[in-house]
Write a structure and sequence with these properties.
CATH superfamily of the largest domain: Vaccinia Virus protein VP39
Bound molecules: S-adenosylmethionine
Number of strands: 11
CATH class of the largest domain: Alpha Beta
Distance between the termini: 66 Å
CATH architecture of the largest domain: 3-Layer(aba) Sandwich
Strand content: 15-25%
Structural class: alpha/beta
CATH topology of the largest domain: Rossmann fold
Order of helices and strands: HHHHHEEHEHEHEEEHHEHEHEE
Length: 283
């Protein structure tokens, strides 16, 4: 079988489930993984024979794609803020909106010379904590998650990206005090309400950890309330709180943060035009 035959087979087998453009994008990602050929190189190697073991790998990936498994879980990694992160079914796949949040934090710290302490709550793969640690060599970064498996992934990702991040296995909702002071507290907590499940694509719903995604309809902002209460006590003078938020609950989230004593609250949209992140400053 030649590379061009594998490509045709991919198109034919997956076109009922995915758009053609998406199928081709999967094919090129897998070509890079399996054949070690970049997209531009595939175009000139279409007549090249594919080995039996490579065909097995393509077929396995095809079956998993047919089951709506995200391509990032299939290849086992993804990119976030220019860094490579290992991902598996225990962690949320980092999203581009979250890169915008990291970018906001980094831009706010541009002229930073002193040492600062940062806490990332609900770290998952560690993407926020590790991207910050990589770009702020003066920062001491802590990363917390309720999931032991996620903490293991975050630790591996910190080593892979050659940064030091202190990982904490803890349930923030049961936490009475953060025990030390921070200059920045950041969180992308679970924020999708059960009523929004119908908007979620099956590949997300069936594969990504529900503990990372969902909150109840009757108390969707519980993480924001709890984290803001803890931050009020443990953020340093003029310290900053950053959140990724539910696009439908922007104003409500601002109201909660304000009612708990923060000021200069900025609500920002993501690149899709949705209310997506908040910065609040401790007075
Ligand atoms: C939306 S994901 C964010 C993951 C990662 N920070 C990112 O931006 O891709 C939320 C994370 O919060 C964690 N989490 C859920 N409930 C938690 C709790 N009670 N205490 C601490 N972490 C929690 C989940 O395990 C998950 O990793």
């Amino acid at each position: 079988m030649k590379i061009k035959d594998v490509r045709v087979d991919f198109k034919n087998s997956l076109s009922e489930v995915y758009e053609e453009e998406e199928v081709m994008s999967f094919f090129y990602i897998l070509s890079e993984e399996i054949l070690k050929l970049r997209r531009v190189d595939v175009a000139i190697a279409l007549e090249k024979e594919v080995s039996a073991s490579e065909i097995v790998q393509f077929n396995e990936a095809k079956t998993r794609l047919l089951n709506q498994e995200p391509i990032q879980y299939i290849i086992g990694h993804t990119y976030f803020y220019g860094l490579c992160f290992i991902v598996n079914e225990n962690v949320l796949i980092p999203r581009p909106e979250t890169e915008e949040l990291v970018d906001w934090i980094l831009k706010d710290q541009e002229s930073l010379e002193s040492t600062i302490k940062i806490l990332d709550i609900g770290t998952g793969s560690g993407c926020i904590a590790i991207a910050l640690a990589k770009n702020l060599p003066n920062a001491k970064v802590y990363a917390m998650d309720i999931s032991k498996q996620a903490i293991e992934v975050a630790k591996v990702n910190a080593i892979k990206n050659e940064v030091e991040v202190t990982c904490i296995h803890e349930n923030i909702l049961m936490c009475e005090d953060l025990t030390q002071e921070f200059d920045i507290i950041v969180s992308n907590p679970p924020y999708i309400r059960a009523l929004e499940k119908k908007e979620i694509r099956p590949n997300v719903l069936d594969n990504e950890p529900h503990q990372a995604l969902f909150v109840s309809d009757h108390d969707p902002l519980l993480f924001y309330e709890k984290i803001t209460i803890l931050a009020k006590r443990r953020l340093k003078f003029r310290g900053r709180l950053y959140f990724e938020i539910n696009q439908y609950l922007g104003e409500e989230t601002v109201t909660i943060i304000k009612s708990l004593g923060f000021e200069s609250i900025i609500l920002r949209k993501d690149l899709y035009g949705n209310n997506r992140m908040i910065q609040a400053r401790k007075p």
